[in-house]
């Protein structure tokens, strides 16, 4: 009788592992992020994510950089709202190029929202 229970328990455990393993595999992974940047009085834009749209857009740390020939200098920081939008006030000096970067974010499920970078804008 105990062998029957042991084999039944082992069979149920194997079924449980087989059912849960694909769910965990789907939860982890990576998703690309796109960042937009515009300027009128302040720099503003949006983070666009292909997968896990709402969770990858919300609360992302945005850094606006001054584009220099051999390096980039951070000039402003912002955080995205629930819709993935941000506003970063910057004192602009001269006609130079600027771009925005969204930092990588790892969700509780293990899914990674990858770093995103906007195009360079000049004015």
Structural features, described:
This protein has 123 residues and is α+β, with helices and mostly antiparallel strands. It has a single domain (29-122), classed as Sandwich (Immunoglobulin-like), CATH 2.60.40. It is built from two helices and twelve strands; from the N terminus they run H-E-E-E-E-H-E-E-E-E-E-E-E-E. The strands form three sheets. Strands 5, 6, 8, 11 and 12 form a five-stranded antiparallel sheet that branches. Strands 2, 3, 4 and 7 form a four-stranded antiparallel sheet that branches. Strands 1-10-9 form a three-stranded mixed sheet, covered by helices on one side. A hairpin with a 4-residue loop joins strand 5 (61-67) and strand 6 (72-79). The longest helix has 26 residues, at 2-27. The radius of gyration is 22 Å and the shape is elongated. 21% of the residues are buried. Mean pLDDT is 81; it is low at 20-26.
Secondary-structure element series? HEEEEHEEEEEEEE
Radius of gyration: 22 Å
Number of domains: 1
CATH topology: Immunoglobulin-like
Work out the strand percent: 35-45%
Biggest β-sheet description:
5 strands, antiparallel
Distance, first to last CA: 81 Å
* Low-pLDDT regions: 20-26
At the first level of CATH, the class is Mainly Beta
Attribute tags:
123 residues, alpha+beta, Immunoglobulin-like, five-stranded antiparallel β-sheet, four-stranded antiparallel β-sheet, 2 helices, 12 strands, elongated
Task: Give a brief rundown of this model.
It is built from two helices and twelve strands, in the order H-E-E-E-E-H-E-E-E-E-E-E-E-E.
